[in-house]
Amino acid sequence: MKNNANNISTNRKAFYEYDILKKYEAGIVLKGSEVKSIRENNSNIKEAYIRVKDDEIFIIGMNIAKYSHEGYSTHDPDREKKLLLHKNEIQNIKEEVEEKGKTIIPLNLYYKNGKVKIQFAIAKGRKLWDKRNYKKDQDVNREIDRAMKDIK
């Protein structure tokens, strides 16, 4: 997802540390104060991960800071938040993640038609040498892009 006005938070480290196999989009069950806090850009998905529990999917470790104008009733910033998906999608994800070495990681938090959505992926962790190759490939592609830009 490109960095645009609808983008709230991005997990850039995920693209470096994991091979992204398949992407999904889901809604999130949030409280009112959490939505207001997200609108103030007080959310973080860098340390978050996703788990399947009893045919439901939850995001764990997603931090949404307390809303600045909130009164006495506040939300827990680190509570588990349920993700909204169809039952067959949850079943497919559950089957894929049961394979060894695969995990579910959040990639982006963004607005879509006024609703907060999360893009997550089934991914496989990279080894250290994979990370080095990825970095080298990025540098080569960047140099190629610069050369092509100079030609135009």
Walk me through the structure.
By secondary structure, the chain is α+β, with helices and mostly antiparallel strands. It has one domain: Small protein B (Small Protein B, Chain: A, Beta Barrel). Helix content is 32%, strand content 36%. It has helices at 12-17, 32-39, 87-97, 128-151; strands at residues 7-10, 18-28, 43-44, 49-53, 56-60, 63-64, 81-84, 102-112, 115-125. It has a seven-stranded antiparallel beta sheet. The radius of gyration is 18 Å and the shape is globular. The mean pLDDT is 85.
Question: Short description, anyone?
Answer:
By secondary structure, the chain is α+β, with helices and mostly antiparallel strands. It has helices spanning 12-17, 32-39, 87-97, 128-151, and strands at residues 7-10, 18-28, 43-44, 49-53, 56-60, 63-64, 81-84, 102-112, 115-125.
* Biggest sheet, spatial arrangement of strands: 1-8-9-2-7-5-4
Care to count the β-strands? Answer: 9
Supply Rg: 18 Å
What is the overall silhouette?
globular
Q: What is the first-to-last residue Cα distance?
A: 27 Å
Biggest sheet layout: 7 strands, antiparallel
Oligomer state of the chains in this structure = single chain
- Total number of distinct structural domains: 1
Per CATH, the class reads Mainly Beta
What attributes characterize this protein structure?
152 residues, alpha+beta, Small Protein B, Chain: A, seven-stranded antiparallel β-sheet, two-stranded antiparallel sheet, 4 helices, 32% helix
Helix and strand topology:
Layout: E1 7-10, H1 12-17, E2 18-28, H2 32-39, E3 43-44, E4 49-53, E5 56-60, E6 63-64, E7 81-84, H3 87-97, E8 102-112, E9 115-125, H4 128-151
Antiparallel strand pairs: 1-8, 2-7, 2-9, 3-6, 4-5, 5-7, 8-9
